[in-house]
């Protein structure tokens, strides 16, 4: 196999996995794409015949690039205005929205905003060790080589990170199981999100309230660039009133579209065809437990303008 054909094959084979790993680490679609691109540039300048395990070689590069980015971005995160949320990845239409197998891979992994957000509580190294072990199933000796620590230390870091994750939310396996259960039940989660959308479109606030868990929380990420709630909105009643207020301030040419956000049902809103916000949800026991609204325009730059298929004014 020639150098060019080997490199091309590795790119096709490993890019979706590398992107998903980088996205989990960074919570940014654009940064993840940059990191993966850098990894293949490095590969292009390497002696491929000396690389025994291209997957591990590339994962090591991506992991360390991500750790470097997280460390350099720490100060910006500390002064971020309002709640910080991951960049949404639209996975509803892989041909038009993302255009490569990474979107399909993320759909299979049920890469929810809630889970990526939960990873943010871990330090950069903890996140790397946890994901390399939990998601990519690497042995501790392999992880140690990737992050420059001993195998024993990596084992300790992993168990500490897993305890921290488990103390707050469900693990990846449990999330995947819930997603599979929802699909088997005829897309119950999608039905709840669709009901929520139509209730909003009709201005039916009592119906919105009925779909929210009593202790639901809404997070709105404007990043100080656009108007958004700078603190989480807690409680079904306050959330329903929050949306009632938004309905009175809809811009000219406002429209919405149901799609998949990070592999789960979500909503994109548009102003004159330009992406305005992305809404995603955490559903528990048939009710909306969390609402995540990304409005920061910097986090929507990777989304392509698109003519929405659903308009509240017509529903």
From TrEMBL:
Q: This protein's superkingdom?
A: Bacteria
Which Gene3D superfamilies does the UniProt record give?
A: 1.10.1740.10, 3.10.450.50, Winged helix-like DNA-binding domain superfamily/Winged helix DNA-binding domain (1.10.10.10)
- Extract the GO molecular function terms from the UniProt entry: DNA binding; sigma factor activity
Q: Which residues form the RNA polymerase sigma factor 70 region 4 type domain?
A: 116-165
Tell me, what is an example of a GO biological process annotation in this record?
Answer: DNA-templated transcription initiation
Ranges for domain RNA polymerase sigma-70 region: 11-74
* Domain SnoaL-like: from-to ranges: 193-271
Q: Which InterPro entries match?
A: ECF_Sigma-70_Domain, NTF2-like_dom_sf, RNA_pol_sigma-70_dom, RNA_pol_sigma-70_ECF, RNA_pol_sigma70_r2, RNA_pol_sigma70_r4_t2, RNA_pol_sigma_r2, RNA_pol_sigma_r3/r4-like
Q: Which PANTHER family match?
A: ECF RNA POLYMERASE SIGMA FACTOR SIGJ (PTHR30173:SF36), SIGMA 19 FACTOR (PTHR30173)
Complex formation: Interacts transiently with the RNA polymerase catalytic core formed by RpoA, RpoB, RpoC and RpoZ (2 alpha, 1 beta, 1 beta' and 1 omega subunit) to form the RNA polymerase holoenzyme that can initiate transcription.
Under which name does UniProt file this protein?
A: RNA polymerase sigma-70 factor (ECF subfamily)
């Amino acid at each position: 196999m020639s150098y060019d054909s080997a490199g091309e094959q590795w790119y096709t084979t490993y890019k979706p996995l590398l992107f998903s790993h980088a996205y989990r680490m960074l919570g940014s679609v654009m940064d993840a794409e940059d990191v993966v691109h850098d990894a293949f540039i490095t590969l292009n300048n390497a002696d491929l015949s000396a690389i025994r395990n291209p997957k591990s070689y590339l994962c090591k590069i991506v992991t360390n690039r991500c750790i470097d980015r997280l460390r350099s971005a720490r100060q910006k995160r500390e002064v971020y205005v309002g709640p910080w949320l991951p960049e949404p990845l639209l996975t509803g239409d892989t041909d038009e929205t993302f255009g490569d197998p990474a979107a399909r891979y993320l759909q299979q992994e049920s890469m929810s905003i809630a889970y990526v957000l939960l990873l943010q509580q871990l330090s950069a190294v903890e996140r790397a060790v946890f994901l390399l072990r939990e998601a990519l199933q690497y042995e501790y000796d392999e992880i140690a080589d990737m992050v420059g620590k001993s195998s024993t230390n990596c084992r300790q870091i992993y168990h500490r990170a897993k305890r921290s994750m488990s103390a707050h939310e469900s693990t990846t396996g449990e999330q995947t199981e819930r997603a599979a259960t929802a699909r088997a039940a005829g897309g119950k989660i999608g039905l709840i999100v669709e009901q929520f959308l139509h209730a909003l479109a009709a201005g039916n606030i009592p119906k919105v309230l009925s779909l929210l868990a009593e202790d639901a929380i809404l997070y709105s990420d404007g990043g100080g660039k656009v108007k958004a709630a700078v603190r989480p909105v807690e409680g079904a009643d306050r959330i329903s009133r929050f949306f009632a207020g938004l309905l009175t301030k809809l811009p000219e040419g406002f429209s919405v579209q149901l799609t998949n956000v990070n592999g789960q049902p979500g909503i994109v809103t548009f102003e004159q065809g330009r992406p305005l916000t992305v809404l995603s949800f955490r559903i528990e026991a048939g009710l909306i437990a969390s609402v995540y609204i990304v409005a920061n325009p910097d986090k929507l730059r990777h989304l392509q303008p698109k003519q929405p298929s659903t308009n509240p004014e017509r529903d």
